[in-house]
């Protein structure tokens, strides 16, 4: 049963790139004009430094699980 579940959630052709913050997973797509590109989605951005966040050390607001 575990192997079947793993096969259902595994995509072939995934791309992984290593950044200074850790690995990021992407996938290959085609543009409207038919050109291939690698898309990286789910990358979190920093919160704007307003209110209580002003002059504070930045932190993550949400945790994104890129690999499971």
Q: How does this structure look, described?
A:
With 68 residues, the protein is mostly beta strands. 10% of the residues lie in helices and 26% in strands. The chain has one helix at residues 2-8, and strands spanning 15-19, 22-30, 36-39. A three-stranded antiparallel beta sheet has the order 1-2-3, with no helix packed on it. β1 and β2 form a beta hairpin. The radius of gyration is 17 Å and the shape is elongated. The two termini are 17 Å apart. The model is unreliable at 1-10 and 61-68 (pLDDT under 50).
Shape: elongated
Alpha-carbon Rg, integer: 17 Å
Distance between the termini: 17 Å
Strand content: 25-35%
Largest sheet: 3 strands, antiparallel
Give the % helix: 10-25%
Uncertain residue segments: 1-10, 61-68
Instruction: Return the string of H and E elements.
Output: HEEE
Q: Which sequence of strands runs across the widest sheet?
A: 1-2-3
Structural class computed from helices and strand pairing: mainly beta
Number of helices: 1
Summarize the model shown:
InterPro entries: AB_hydrolase_fold, CarbesteraseB. It is built from one helix and three strands. By secondary structure, it is mostly beta strands.
Keywords:
CarbesteraseB, Carboxylesterase type B domain-containing protein, disordered N terminus, three-stranded antiparallel sheet, AB_hydrolase_fold, mainly beta, 68 residues, glycoprotein
Tell me the layout of helices and strands.
Layout (H helix, E strand, L loop, with lengths): L1 H7 L6 E5 L2 E9 L5 E4 L29
Antiparallel strand pairs: 1-2, 2-3
């Amino acid at each position: 049963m575990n192997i079947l579940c793993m096969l259902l959630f595994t995509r072939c052709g995934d791309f992984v790139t290593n950044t200074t913050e850790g690995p990021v997973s992407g996938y290959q797509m085609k543009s409207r004009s038919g050109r291939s590109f690698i898309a990286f989605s789910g990358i979190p951005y920093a919160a704007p430094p307003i209110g209580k966040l002003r002059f504070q050390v930045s932190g993550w607001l949400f945790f994104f699980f890129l690999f499971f």
